[in-house]
Amino acid sequence: MGEFTPCPDEAVNAAKAICGPITLSEITDRRGSAVWKATGTVATLAIKAGYGEGEEITAREGAVLDQLPGYTVTVGRYASGVWYVTPWLTGPSTWDLFKPIRHGDGDHARALAGSADLCRAVAELHAAGWVHGDLQPAHGIHTDHDAKLLDLSWAWSPMFPPSPLFQGGITHLVAPELAAAVESGERPVRTTIESDVYALAGTLWTCITGRWPLDYDAAGIGPDVGPSARRAAIAAGAIPLHSAEPWPTAQAPLRAVLRARAQDRPRAAELAVALEEL
Ligand SMILES: Nc1ncnc2c1ncn2[C@@H]1O[C@H](COP(=O)(O)OP(=O)(O)OP(=O)(O)O)[C@@H](O)[C@H]1O
Ligand SMILES: [Mg+2]
C-alpha cells in the first residue's frame, strides 16, 4: 500500500466555503480515486479526488451528481486530476446494516425495512430515467430517513450516455445478459434497469449470507479464474446460486430475481413491496 494521496487544496477550500473549518479523515484511496470525510462546524462533506486512471471516471461521477435530483455537488479540477465535494451521507452502508443479521442476532424487521429503503432508492433513480450500473453492498447508505446511493460513476440516462470506459462493474453482481454484452465486446456497455435489479437482489443476498450469490466452487470455477472467464460462465448460466440459506424467507424473493430472465425480473419498487410484506 502506498501513501494516501494528498487532498487537493482546491477541494479543501471549497469545503471550507460551505461548512467553515474542517477536519479531514481518510476513507479510501484505490484505483485512482480517494475519498475523505470533511467534518465542519455546520455540515459534514465528502471530498472525492480522481487522479490518473480515476480522473475521467470521477469527472463523470461529478457530472452525474450535478444532474441527479436529490444530490448536490461542487466539482473542480486540480493539478493531478478532478475533485468534487458533496454532502456526507450519515448512516451505515447496507453491508454494515446487515452485520447483526449475518451474526445471527439481527433485527429482521429492521433489515427488511432497510432492504425496502434500498430498493426504493433504486426505484426512484429508475423513475428519474437513470440506471446506476454499479450497485454493491457498500454503495447504499441508510440515513435516518431513507437510503441513498453512492458511487454513481457509471450511471447513465438517455440525456447522459453510458461511458465507453465502463468494463461491466463488479463481476460477482453482473447479470447474465450484461456479462454476455461485456464479453461480446459491445462498447459502451449498456447497463439496464433489469441489470440493476439483478445487482440489487445480489447485493441484498450478499448482505444476508456474507458471500457472493453464485457458487463458483460448484461450477469448478476457482479463485484464480479471471473476470473474463467468470463473466463468460455467468453469461452461459453455468454457475448455480449458493445453497447457504441463513434467512430463507428473505432469500426467496431474491432468489427469484437472481434466477429470472431479464424481462421477467420485477421492478425495484415491486421488490421493495415483496420484501416489506414478508
Ligand atoms: N457522500 C458520501 N457519504 C458517505 N460516505 C461516502 C460518501 N462518498 C463516499 N463515501 C465513502 O467512501 C467509500 C468510497 O466511495 P466510492 O465508492 O464512491 O469510491 P470509489 O473510489 O469508487 O471506491 P470503489 O472503487 O471501492 O468502489 C464509500 O464506500 C463510502 O464508505
Ligand atoms: Mg465504490
From TrEMBL:
Annotated ranges, domain Protein kinase: 1-278
Gene3D superfamilies reported for this sequence: Transferase(Phosphotransferase) domain 1
Coiled-coil annotated residue ranges, if any: none
GO molecular function: ATP binding; protein kinase activity
Descriptive protein name: Protein kinase domain-containing protein
Source organism phylogeny: Bacteria, Bacillati, Actinomycetota, Actinomycetes, Kitasatosporales
